[in-house]
Amino acid sequence: MNTQVVYEPARQVPVYGSWDVVVIGGGIAGVAAALAAARAGASVCLVEKENALGGLATLGNVLVYLPLCDGRGKQVAAGLAAELMRISLRYSAAQLPECWQPDGNIAERSKQRLRVSFNPAAYMISLEELVLAAGVQLMYDTRCCAVQVENNRISAIFVENKSGRGAIVPQVVIDASGDADVCYLAGAATVSLHTNRRSGWYLSHQENGVRINMLSDPLPAGSGGAPTFAGDDWQDVTRMNIAGRQMIKEHLMQHAAPSGFANAYPVAMPVIPLFRMTRRLQADFELDESDDHRWFDDTVGMIGDWRKAGPIFCIPYRTLRTKQVGNLLAAGRCISVTESAWEITRVIPACAVTGQAAGTAAVQALKSGGRVDALDVKELQNTLCAQGVIIKRELIM
């Protein structure tokens, strides 16, 4: 490793603005957090390093909105999780499964899960419309590169974009970066996973129309000699991008028609690397896969297991915060979980549920100067339930 360093001269940094709530990351978790906070009356800035919202769902072509149910007929995730599912279909002919329609056959719900597939481009548009309608200040093409921590709270976020380097002054910060970037930069304890595998979800045109190709190396990561990648290292991020496109090229060559690419060709490639799990917050408590059907007094939402029917997980508020930084919350792929639970909480429904919880909690924390540990959890739960979030102990009894 190159240990050479250079010293950057100190400089004054312009302040781009001050907001009640600053959300870093415009994936599904970030969108949910920004919407929840803005709809509750807070001023909100949403910082996104790419140039569109949706993260892996849109820019990565991961076009499956995984189930909001437990696989046995019970819906466990609602609120913004359900709203974001509905608007994923806004500019398409697709619909929710018939049995999950308001007048659907309830008995059939145990046979068909509440999940949909969407058009990534259409979803990109509808997410932006929703965020703008809520009055959120979007900041595209902008990367969080440092934070200033004073008296156990983030007092400034340093970003860089086409205008250069600037600062944002927050009351509460929500890390929805997917990579726990803010948690890491603020000095909170984090855990990194270095076992991501090559993936390349892309749309291609075939003789019978457009189709999705879901390419991934087999699990467990590294099996069969497949390479693995870390999401918190610039060299591995570069390698992951290149390897994913190489994977797509190989697939295209294998499935090309005898006449070449005249009737079969790529239509939409992922424009971000398809990391599954990179870096997460490590708080005093980590949700584990063994916590299936376990109630927590500070539950702020519920999710199922997209991989199998039966499990229901209550997500405790304590997985969204760290004692090390008083005005910081995590959402989505960043929350405090073990590796076994990470596989469950990294997907769209959990991102929407934790994003809404974080955004709502952030607004409540404003009453105590942004201290996310000082809020009344029961009040938070009541507010979330009023927003349509499902927090029902009887579902796990």
Descriptive terms for the model:
397 residues, single chain, 2 domains, alpha/beta, FAD/NAD(P)-binding domain, 18 strands, 24% helix, 3-stranded antiparallel sheet
Describe the structure.
This protein has 397 residues and is of the alpha/beta class. It folds into 2 domains: 15-193 and 279-396, FAD/NAD(P)-binding domain; 197-268, no CATH class. Helix content is 24%, strand content 24%. The chain contains 8 helices and 18 strands. It has helices at residues 28-39, 80-87, 120-133, 181-185, 234-255, 339-345, 348-365, 377-386; strands at residues 15-24, 44-47, 64-65, 116-117, 137-139, 143-150, 153-161, 164-175, 190-192, 196-197, 199-206, 209-216, 228-229, 265-268, 279-281, 299-304, 312-316, 328-330. The strands form 6 sheets. Strands 1, 2, 5, 6, 7, 8 and 18 form a 7-stranded mixed β-sheet that branches. Strands 12-11-14 form a 3-stranded antiparallel β-sheet. A two-stranded antiparallel sheet has the order 3-4. The protein starts with 14 loop residues before the first strand and ends in an 11-residue tail after the last helix. The mean pLDDT is 94.
Topology:
Blueprint (H helix, E strand, L loop, with lengths): L14 E10 L3 H12 L4 E4 L16 E2 L14 H8 L28 E2 L2 H14 L3 E3 L3 E8 L2 E9 L2 E12 L5 H5 L4 E3 L3 E2 L1 E8 L2 E8 L11 E2 L4 H22 L9 E4 L10 E3 L17 E6 L7 E5 L11 E3 L8 H7 L2 H18 L11 H10 L11
Parallel strand pairs: 1-2, 1-8, 2-5, 8-18
Antiparallel strand pairs: 3-4, 6-7, 7-8, 9-15, 10-13, 11-12, 11-14, 16-17
Helix pairs in contact: 1-7, 2-7
